[in-house]
Amino acid sequence: MKVQLRVITHSEIQCYLDCRRLYYYKYNLQLQEPVGKALRMGSSLHANMALYFAGDEVKDILDSIDKQYTSLLFSDDEYIRDITKAMIIGHDACYNRSEFETIDVEVEFRVPIIYDANTHKVKYAGVVDAVVKHVPTGKYWLVEHKTTSSITPAYRKRLEIDPQLTMYLLGMVQNQEEPYRDMKFEGIFFNAFRKPTINPKQGESQEAYAVRLVKDYCGRPDFYFFRQECLRNQAELDEMREFLWYRAEELSNPPPDYARNRNHCDSWGGCAFRPLCIEFSDELCMAYERKPKLHPELNSAE
Ligand code: SF4
What number is the average pLDDT over the span 255-283? Predict the structure, then answer.
């Protein structure tokens, strides 16, 4: 069975590199992993940082977050709501907002894969969290937000060669849509938010915990927030072109066995498809939801 590829994304490539069997489940059978707390936390922050970079006032964003969580679907929704609010408040207190002028948020690119003067039939696509002008220098940057459990020197070092950042920069360099066609990008501002290290105390109300969260985020900005300017030179962008070409080739003609990578089974809290890997059956497949589209991270129709 082959996937009818029109575009590939960073998530798809990463999944294929992690485990080909996992790729088969997610991109051939289009099965949906259960959406865990970490993903819901990240989605909540991204959606609301989009409002922030679009210019909304913090008080309006906080009101909007409350409205987003009027119906509590998961037991930890209040927890995620209050962390999102504390992150937005702390971030606003930590940085000078007027340093950036936002060109747009959630900018989607869909561009050809060109390598060695050849254009692949597969395109690649992605969504950049924001494109901004750095007001003091007049230079253009991409912005990527990320929630993380820890910010170590090794974490920062990995950003120097993070393939997603390189891929997004290349995508925007190639983007022929206005106003990006002739825009020169300096690099990517990596905007990280650390998850809280304080938990609700025994008997503490949600309201009291929310107040403590805000105090903690505002009181320890160096602990909870960090930004890094991630630069890429021409050689790195060219190497990414080559990388994308060969991944597009592989994904157009994947080996039929979709080999398991057992080293990946316990990553990120454990693979959600382990039961299928142990004993595949159509009945078990039916227990998983189907992804509404192959790449839910893209805004546009596929
Ligand atoms: S359980 Fe392991 S081998 Fe199976 S799909 Fe998941 S990561 Fe791959």
Answer: 91
Q: Rounded to 10 degrees, what is the CA torsion of 56, 54, 215, 156?
A: 180
Out of 23, 260, 280, give the residue to mutate to test ligand 1, the one with the largest number of ligand atoms within 8 Å of its CB.
Answer: 260
Question: If you take atom 3 of ligand 1, which residue's CA is the nearest one?
Answer: 260
What confidence tens digit (pLDDT) does each residue in 54-63 have? Answer: 999 999 999 9
Q: How far is the CA of 292 from the centre of ligand 1 (A)?
A: 22
User: Residue 134 C-alpha to ligand 1 middle, in angstroms?
Assistant: 43
What are the tens digits of pLDDT across the range 156-211? Answer: 999 999 999 999 999 999 999 999 999 999 999 999 999 999 999 999 999 999 99
Atom of ligand 1 lying closest to residue 271 CA: 6
pTM over 0.85: yes
Residue 21 Cα to ligand 1 middle (Å)? 6
Residue closest via CA to ligand 1's atom 5 equals: 22
The CA 256 to ligand 1 mean position distance, Å, reads: 16
Q: What is the DSSP letter of 4?
A: -
205: its two tokens? 């109300």
The residue nearest atom 1 of ligand 1, judged by CA position, is: 274
Q: Which domains does the chain have, with CATH numbers?
A: 7-34+248-286 (no CATH), 37-232 (3.90.320)
Spatial separation of the C-alpha atoms in residues 148 and 165, rounded to whole Å: 16
Question: How large is the angle between the packed helices 206-219 and 77-94, nearest 10 degrees?
Answer: 30
**Mean pLDDT of all residues belonging to the chain:** 93
Rounded-to-integer distance, Cα 71 and Cα 155, Å: 36
